[in-house]
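Progress note, sequence design subtask.
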């Protein structure tokens, strides 16, 4: 009590100068919010930022891989439907003409379906009268273009034909461009053209 003054009754009186600086405990950097940031804290923030960036990149890459897988599957469906339609269109036998025409209609939609359906009966009659038989052999096929739920498929077909007047004709090479589009859960041909 060296510096403290005594009151008249002998009780100590606090000094107006404030507490002794030696009596106050020093603050550490962790207790001082305005002090320098700990290097550990910066490492944690940087690590968290890297984890977030990697998670975002992984998510994006996963989404792109899934999208590519869906596009590849759709491309394969379009190609298969185009090939099947070309096979159906070029393989007609007079002894089963109705079933052959029905196979064409089963993979058709839109104006192609309407046109082929409207001409089916006269076509069947001509094939039967001529005792015509054609067999298509598929060659190369590929997607020319694809956009959304539609693709253009190119198919090379070699067609061997015969009829009552000409038992075996020389094979003919055809190239077909088929527009295939998704209809509900299926894919169907909406347009067919022969190309040079």
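Output:
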């Amino acid at each position: 009590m060296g510096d403290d003054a005594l009151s008249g009754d002998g009780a100590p009186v606090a000094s107006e100068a404030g507490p002794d600086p030696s009596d106050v405990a020093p603050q550490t950097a962790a207790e001082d919010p305005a002090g320098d940031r700990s290097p550990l804290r910066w490492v944690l923030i940087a690590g968290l930022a890297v984890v977030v960036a990697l998670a975002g990149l992984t998510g994006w890459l996963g989404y792109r891989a899934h999208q590519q897988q869906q596009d590849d599957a759709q491309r394969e469906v379009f190609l298969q439907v185009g090939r099947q339609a070309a096979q159906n269109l070029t393989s007609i036998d007079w002894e089963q003409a109705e079933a052959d025409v029905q196979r064409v209609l089963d993979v058709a939609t839109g104006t192609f379906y309407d046109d082929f359906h409207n001409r089916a009966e006269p076509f069947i009659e001509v094939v039967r009268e001529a005792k015509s038989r054609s067999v298509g052999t598929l060659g190369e096929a590929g997607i020319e273009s694809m956009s959304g739920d539609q693709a253009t498929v190119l198919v090379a077909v070699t067609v061997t034909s015969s009829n009552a007047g000409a038992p075996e004709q020389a094979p003919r090479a055809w190239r077909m461009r088929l527009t295939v589009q998704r209809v509900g859960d299926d894919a169907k041909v909406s347009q067919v053209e022969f190309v040079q």
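The CA atoms of residues 19 and 25 lie 12 Å apart. Work on this subtask will continue into the next period as scheduled.
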